[in-house]
Amino acid sequence: MSVTKTDICVIGAGSGGLSVAAGAVQMGARVVLIEAGEMGGDCLNTGCVPSKALLHAACAGMDWQDAHDHVRATIAAIAPHDSVERFEGLGVRVIKGFARFTGPREVAVNGETIRARRIVIATGSRPRLPAIAGLEDVPCLTNETIFALAERPEHLLILGAGAVGLEMAEAHRRLGCEVTVLEAARAMGRDDPEAVAVVLAALRARGVRIEEDMPVVRAQGGDGRITLTTADGARITGSHLLVATGRAPAIEGLDLDKAGVEAGSGGIVVDTRLRSTNRRIHAIGDVTGGAQFTHVAGYQAGVIIRAMLFGLPAKARADHIPHALYTAPELAQVGLTEAEARARYGDGVEIARAAFSGNDRAVATGETAGFLKVMVHKGRPVGATLVGAGAGEQIALWALALSGRQKLSAIAGIVVPYPTMAEISKRAAGVYFAPRLFDNKTVKRVVRAVQTILP
User: Fold this and answer.
1) What is the pLDDT of residue 445?
2) What domains are there in the chain, each with its CATH number?
3) For the purposes of burial, counting CB atoms within 10 Å of the CB of 80, is it exposed (0-12), middle (13-18) or buried (19 or more)?
4) Angle CA 251–256–257, to nearest 5
5) What is the per-residue pLDDT across 150-174, written as a single tens digit (0 to 9) for each?
6) Where do the Pyridine nucleotide-disulphide oxidoreductase dimerisation domain residues begin and end (predicted)?
7) Is residue 47 a contact partner of residue 15, using CB atoms and an 8 Å limit?
8) Among the residues of 176-326, which ranges form H helices?
9) Would you say 433 and 412 are in contact if contact means Cβ atoms under 8 Å apart?
10) What span, in angstroms and rounded, lies between the C-alpha atoms of 172 and 348?
11) Is 0.90 surpassed by the pTM of this model?
12) 119 has which bridge partners?
């Protein structure tokens, strides 16, 4: 077996792995990148890109065939950026094959041993099927297969009311499907309930049936007719079933034990520097069991590049990481929710709110559903919840504020074009400061005194 020596070996060519490989090789490191499946990973091929393309097509009023043509065209347009050819052009050696560890610094792939100074595991995650009686015998879709459907489902059943479940409910309802979503607990359970309620009301108004606190205990049937039985005995029948109940880390077959890398059902165990129990091996993205977002993997790639290339003690943060749900209206969150902020700071937290109904651009475009709430502690935002049109775009301002630990006065001081949805952030900051200025007796005394001496 031949041996190749390199500085960095990256396993997995999804968002995180590609970011590490591109960054490291362009700064002078020797890099080997190993990928068993499609370049671009889940995000490009079966996740973020196709789902957002399908949502756009559905909201634009395309029919089933045109919408799926748009999905394929979108993937094809982005694919060259993640391709083998591009990365080989950058100087990365790309190996298509399945890697497995043979030692603490070595992996084997296609009969070759790669010996590296540092190894990065970025293998992502796979759909996790819940423990439901009969489910293993029922044809079911996941995010990896739903975009390949040749024909429109008559009635799509969706298990799970998380981001994948609700986004696919939105898209397929707009494409003419009957849609029923079954959630064992609460829809979008980690997000602000008040904001989630706005999203659910909009989906229900468009004809999506959403049932919360309704665990499914049995699945049965075959192609074209699938029946789900709930814990209370209700039976719901549809033509297709999408399982969107979570994901599991993709660690099977890596032989992590041979490298001294500890992993459990939640993923590879890492410290704040994203090092595994073998400190020469880092793990980033979904495979660590943390927040499962493309932008998190990209951020973590930057953290470990600083450590691997420059020896800097870089640590990963999580308090400034945003996420978004791309339904209509959208929902976005960064930092603490209201409940989390009150649990942490008690009476020391203040909530600054602004409604889309008070935003002139929202009124002009008829998109007045939603609000912004900002959680403030000692004059600094510690969290922001946005639900409304373009929330996924607007949360970036608050992600910047939390990342830089800025005071709310920085937001109050910005000037934004009129009329824009972005004014809602300035409005919320104004709501926070208004009583401190307008209801402050000291301020009023100072103003009156100054007026008496001004010429």
Assistant:
1) 79
2) 2-39+83-127+248-310 (3.50.50.60), 135-245 (3.50.50.60), 322-438 (3.30.390.30)
3) exposed
4) 140
5) 999 999 999 999 999 999 999 999 9
6) 321-428
7) no
8) 193-205, 294-310
9) yes
10) 44
11) yes
12) 9, 281
